[in-house]
Amino acid sequence: MKKAVLVTGGAGYIGSHTTLALAIEGYHVVILDDFSQSQTVDLPWAEVMHGDIADVVLLNIIFKRYEIQAVFHFAAFIEVGESVKRPRSFYDNNVSKTATLLAVMLDHDVRRIIFSSSCAVYGAPQYVPMDEFHPTAPVSPYGRTKLAVEFMLQDYARAYGLGYASLRYFNASGAQWEHGLGEQHTPETHLIPLLLDAITQGREVYIFGDDYATLDGTCVRDYVHVRDLAQAHVLAFKQLLNKSESLVINVGTGVGHSVREVLAVTEHVCRRAAKVQVMPRRLGDAPVLVSNTQRMQEIFCWQPEHSDLMTIVTSAYAWHQQRRQERQALHVTL
Ligand code: UFG
């Protein structure tokens, strides 16, 4: 049997970058994705299977065909606002299906999982930077589904010897346009892709609230380049292979940037001034979310290498332009 790693949601934004990092490290990567959230299809470094993560027949085939060393579990619904409107589908997709996946893993004696968690498990920050001991009180169904899976992992670790790494991401951003990978969600709600779209097309950009208790009144976030995030997954996997000790860990940079700062850098990169409209605060937005990175540094000696704001926005812009040109070329051909 061939050794491999299984990546659910491997065609999505963070998943696809992680499959590339794993392939570069020499792992045979099998992706399981239903393509409901992603249009990325060209992943020549991986074997792509189209299907549902709770399709027991398909999972049995995969686990019989390969000696799966670990499952990287990205497949999930992620849009916070949607989770408030449709909690049922979030609990079904993010929690119930994870339970099915874990059950099949255990049936096949696959006992390592790297889970895509979120800083959303913390809820409103009681202090910043937030470390892993910060109380978990998620304010959205999305955050609660992530925390529910974390509890499941804890219990399964104790009862069934599962080894897990729960990575609590801060704001994943940036692209690897040279590999055709970038950020694209439907609907898009994330700041950097929205700014790039609006500025390059001369449309208005929206700032959701400029009356927060921050330096310039706009929300502060910890933007981590998706390439650094992908590397963190590889490190977590190696840690599980070597020590089999489970861990919960923040993945951020420890540096916060306000919406206005991100806007200024994006205007610079696009060489164009934005038309700005200040809107009311967006429901559920915390004023400041910044990670304490001590554990990441201590356990993994991990330092983000691509996460300065200029590199993030420049890479996202390059990918944005590449896609625009591809769309234009397609239009001319048609
Ligand atoms: N924002 C704007 N204008 C926009 C879009 C966003 O001002 O057009 C602001 C938001 O209000 C927020 C900041 O930009 O203050 C960042 O917003 P994003 O939507 O890019 O990211 P979030 O911080 O809201 O979301 C991130 C992750 C989610 C996770 C959440 C946890 O992307 O997956 O943190 O709070 F759930």
Largest sheet: 7 strands, parallel
Number of helices: 10
**Looking across the biggest beta sheet, what order are the strands in?**
3-2-1-4-5-6-11
CATH architecture annotation of the largest domain: 3-Layer(aba) Sandwich
By CATH, the superfamily of the largest domain comes out as: NAD(P)-binding Rossmann-like Domain
Q: Mean pLDDT, rounded to whole units?
A: 95
| Terminal Cα span | 45 Å
Jot down its keywords.
334 residues, alpha/beta, Rossmann fold, UDP-galactose 4-epimerase, domain 1, 3-stranded mixed beta sheet, binds uridine-5'-diphosphate-4-deoxy-4-fluoro-alpha-D-galactose
Kindly describe this structure.
With 334 residues, the protein is of the alpha/beta class. It folds into two domains: 2-170 and 225-251, NAD(P)-binding Rossmann-like Domain (Rossmann fold, 3-Layer(aba) Sandwich); 177-221 and 254-333, UDP-galactose 4-epimerase, domain 1. It has ten helices and 14 strands. It has helices at residues 13-24, 56-65, 80-85, 87-107, 141-160, 191-200, 226-243, 259-270, 294-300, 309-333; strands at residues 2-8, 29-33, 47-50, 66-73, 112-118, 163-169, 171-173, 204-208, 220-221, 223-225, 247-251, 257-258, 275-279, 288-289. Strands 3-2-1-4-5-6-11 form a seven-stranded parallel β-sheet, with helices on both faces. A three-stranded mixed β-sheet has the order 12-9-14. The chain has a two-stranded parallel ribbon with strand order 7-10. The longest helix has 25 residues, at 309-333. The termini are far apart. The mean pLDDT is 95. Uridine-5'-diphosphate-4-deoxy-4-fluoro-alpha-D-galactose (UFG) is lined by residues 78, 80, 118-120, 142, 171, 189-191, 194, 206-208, 219, 221, 259, 282, 285, 289. Uridine-5'-diphosphate-4-deoxy-4-fluoro-alpha-D-galactose binds next to α6 and β8.
